[in-house]
Amino acid sequence: MARKLFLFIIFVLALTIFTFGCKQKKPEQVSDDGSKRRKRIAVVISTLNNPWFVVLGNTAKERAEQLGYQATIFDSQNDTAKESDHFDNIIAGGYAAILFNPTDADGSIANVKKAKEADIPAFCIDREINSNDVAVTQILSDNYSGCVELGQYFVKKMNKKGKYVELLGILGDNNTWNRSKGFHSVVDNYPELKMVAQQTAEFDRTKAMEVLESILQANPEIDAVFCGNDAMAMGAYQAIVAADKADKVMVFGFDGAKDVIDSIHDAKIAATGMQFPRKMARMAAEQADEYIKGRRDFPQKVPVAVELVTQENIAKYTAYGRQSER
Length: 326
Fold this sequence. Notes:
This protein has helices at residues 2-38, 51-66, 80-93, 109-117, 143-157, 174-187, 205-218, 230-242, 258-265, 277-292, and strands at 40-45, 70-75, 97-100, 122-125, 137-141, 162-168, 193-200, 224-227, 250-252, 271-274, 301-304, 307-310, 317-318, 321-322. It is α/β, with parallel strands linked by helices. It has a 6-stranded parallel beta sheet with strand order 2-1-3-4-5-11, sandwiched between helices. Strands 7-6-8-9 form a 4-stranded parallel beta sheet, sandwiched between helices. Strands 10-12 form a two-stranded antiparallel sheet. The termini are far apart.
């Protein structure tokens, strides 16, 4: 009798443990599924039709993956409608955060706002939005100061006189105007420096070539071209070569892209402003990780210094950064 009672007690205990374990298993699985779903980070890039943004996007993805997240890159193709579709898909997919390179300073605000309302934080990289209360933070190159220094070098190379053309980037992008304003804050102080044309080429290499070819027909005697990014600088250089003026017209860019760094080294391009896309992308991924883990005290804007790259100091630099940081 005692033996039967003992076996019965063992059976009851085993059944209790088994039942408890089964009850606990399902919530753990749900929790794991939810955790995996929230361990994804979206990387939304304005355009992948520019090597500089490819580096920005790939670095952000790589750093997010190093931190333990699944990361997906979305290409907006400089189209706010495509960008909006990406945000809808990201919200529906329940991503944990968005590393965001906006297409438009005003047009992109609504996308960041709807992500915030869905409890998905956005971290702007390189391009900003004209709002200080929807993105968690905005990591931006100090475009204005970078182009002040570039303008000073421009004045020096031009010997304070001559005719020049300015090629602007996308008109809805604050970077376009911050660079232009920084440049003109210096150059406009020299009355013998004459800007004969100022047109947008939308940060695009082919458009820059076409725009400058047209400008050169009306203004064949120019001494320099200041371009709002390196893609336009390379397009401008192509137009100058086609017009047989490569030895007469200096080209200035902004970005630190590989083809322009190589061209400065070969004495084809005069100078550029070196941004640091890898640094900005890594910072954004790391801040997203900190936010997901509970941090909330982020500055609204984080400026990243731009450095002047010329034929005199080119040995210190490589594409998208310093030689020492490779």
